[in-house]
Amino acid sequence: MPRDHATFERAMKLAVVSGLKCMLGPALVATAHRRPDRQGLVAAALGELVIDKLPFVPNRSSLPLLIPRAIAGYWVTKQMMEREGIDDPLAAPIGAAVAAGTATFAPILRNALSRILGIPNPVVGLAEDYLALKLGGEAVGLSLEDLRNVATESLEEVKDRVLPMVDSARERLAVG
């Protein structure tokens, strides 16, 4: 079947997003397709957005961090193409390459923008997060408001699961 350019373009946007934030592309696809694993993927994507800002986190362009990004780019592209009934055997490998390329190039661009414009790197990082959310949301048809609601629901679910475990552990420590 011939390549559907609009679907391929949306899939490549998600591959770029996966290169910027490994878990965000899969979380967006899972949310848009109402997959049962979406809450966990959304929680992982939110965690990545926070952890990515910590100074000890290695550069995403290092080989160990390129591999999951390439896999995420492959997966989101494959999911988008299959969902539209498009059989394009090259699309998913191209998505993997786009994610890996984005992961390699983005830190270089981010550091250059920070130096040239004199904007602190964390501020550029927040702008990058906004770009990833905006681009990814558009690719799957979700507004920033939709994404905020999904994030809130996911955090509530995590809280509902984690707090009972914390309370139980606290009780055991108090008894012990």
Structural write-up:
- By secondary structure, the protein is an all-alpha fold.
- The protein has one domain.
Number of strands: 0
Bulk shape: globular
The SSE string, one letter per element, is: HHHHHHH
Low-confidence stretches: none
Strand count, sense and barrel status of the largest sheet are: none
Structural class: mainly alpha
Number of domains: 1
**Termini gap:** 65 Å
| Percent of residues in β-strands | under 5%
- Report Rg: 18 Å
Figure out the total of helices.
Answer: 7
Helix content: over 70%
Mean model confidence by pLDDT: 90
Brief summary of the model shown:
The chain is 79% helix and 0% strand. The chain is mainly alpha-helical.
Defining traits:
176 residues, mainly alpha
Topology (SSEs and partners):
Blueprint: H1 5-20, H2 24-32, H3 38-51, H4 63-83, H5 91-117, H6 121-140, H7 144-175
